[in-house]
Amino acid sequence: MTDLDLIDAARQAASYSYSPYSNFAVGAALRFADGTVVTGTNIENASYGLALCAETVAVSKAMADGVRGGLEAVAVTGPGDMPITPCGRCRQVLNELAQLGGTDPVILCVGPDEVRRTTLSALLPDAFGPASLT
Ligand code: THU
């Protein structure tokens, strides 16, 4: 699974977005060390503040299936004019899974004309995580 395939998987996930309130369909795709890909999309609610972000849905799907590490790359797609970066809460949620497996995943922030390639540690420096509680 190449980075472009991962981006395609995120775009595909975004096609299932339930975002009637924002009309802002986001897709996320997580790639793990064993090649597994888990996707998510944003799920909104009539009680607006309860919206679930695409990245958080993807991490929840993976962890609910028993995954606890090996997160190597994350692609995030959105409909806007600029590469979409994970929101603060999603950075923290991604960090939990990444730290459990001791990885610093590449984050592919996808825009219409460019893919901004960064890392989770760059997006969330000095992260609070599982190790912080010991
Ligand atoms: N959203 C995501 O799914 N991920 C992010 O990282 C940023 C925002 C969603 C939440 C909401 O459904 C819509 O985008 C507009 O904020």
From TrEMBL:
Its EC number is 3.5.4.5. GO terms for molecular function: cytidine deaminase activity. The keyword Isomerase does not apply. Its cofactor is Zn(2+). SUPFAM superfamilies: Cytidine deaminase-like. CDD domains: cytidine_deaminase. InterPro entries: APOBEC/CMP_deaminase_Zn-bd (IPR016192), CMP_dCMP_dom (IPR002125), Cyt/Deoxycyt_deaminase (IPR050202), Cyt_deam_tetra (IPR006262), Cytidine_deaminase-like (IPR016193). The keyword Disulfide bond does not apply. It catalyses: cytidine + H2O + H(+) = uridine + NH4(+); 2'-deoxycytidine + H2O + H(+) = 2'-deoxyuridine + NH4(+). It is an enzyme of class 3 (hydrolase). Pfam families: dCMP_cyt_deam_1 (PF00383). Residues 1-131 form the CMP/dCMP-type deaminase domain. Keywords: Hydrolase, Metal-binding, Zinc. This enzyme scavenges exogenous and endogenous cytidine and 2'-deoxycytidine for UMP synthesis. PANTHER family: CYTIDINE DEAMINASE (PTHR11644:SF2). Belongs to the cytidine and deoxycytidylate deaminase family. This is Cytidine deaminase.
